[in-house]
Amino acid sequence: MNNIFLISEVVDKYRWISIAENRNDWGKRLSLLREQPVPQDFGPVEVEWTPETFQRSAADFVNFRTDLKCINYESSVLFDDIFKESGQMIRLSGLNYIAYYCTYFSDCISSYHTENKLKHSIFSSLHSPKFCPVLERCKLPNVSIFHIPESNNKFFVDEVFKNIYDHNELTGLEFFPVDLV
Fold first, then answer.
1. What is the DSSP string of 87-150?
2. CA neighbor of 173 nearest in space, from 134, 130, 124
3. Residue 62 near residue 15 (C-beta atoms within 8 A)
């Protein structure tokens, strides 16, 4: 594994997805998953475009929840093997999207180097969406997408994921190189 990237949705350019009707208390049910497998009878979650972002164009990956990656159906097939190796899909209804729920956590953060980086970063915290912690190369998992236990809203991907994204000219994500020690 040569390069690792932190991914984040481009939130100011593309539409967002929201839970449509919360009669099934989807917000609470999604937040309670917390590293647990998705039950077989879970979903579909009813979603719609967030009204404040409707005038923007739709992307392949759209902002939905920080602990999920939401991708349109057509593009999701490109990542089938990658998604299956480290997570589960959550069915959505109302729009042609599906949510990826990562269940693979890797204890690969370098605490010393990350703390040092935080000391030299103005207005940053480990939980800041675009702050990239330093990871230990020898502890990286052999999967293309993963989380770290310290922050389940951070998604890390390898070059395989990024190459599929770039080759197919997909939209909606930013890739931030991660320092490895």
1. EEEEEEESSSEEEEEE--B---B-HHHHHHHHHTSTT--TTSTT----B-GGG--SSSEEEETT
2. 130
3. yes
> Cis link prior to 44 (omega < 30° from 0)?
yes
Mean pLDDT of the chain: 91
Reference 64, options 50, 78, 52, 75; nearest CA is 50
Block residue for tokens 């879970």: 42
pLDDT at residue 1, as a whole number: 55
CA dist., res. 126 & res. 1, Å (int): 23
Q: What is the pLDDT of residues 31-50, one digit of tens each?
A: 777 777 888 888 899 999 99
The percentage of residues in the chain with a pLDDT greater than 70, rounded to a whole number, is 97
Q: What is the pTM of this model?
A: 0.91
- Structure tokens given for 80: 């089938």
β-partners of residue 101 are 88
User: Among 25, 27, 18, which residue's Cα sits nearest to residue 47?
Assistant: 18
Work out the burial of residue 17: count CB atoms within 10 Å of its CB; fewer than 13 is exposed, 13-18 middle, 19 or more buried: buried
The mean pLDDT of 141-149, rounded to a whole number, is 94
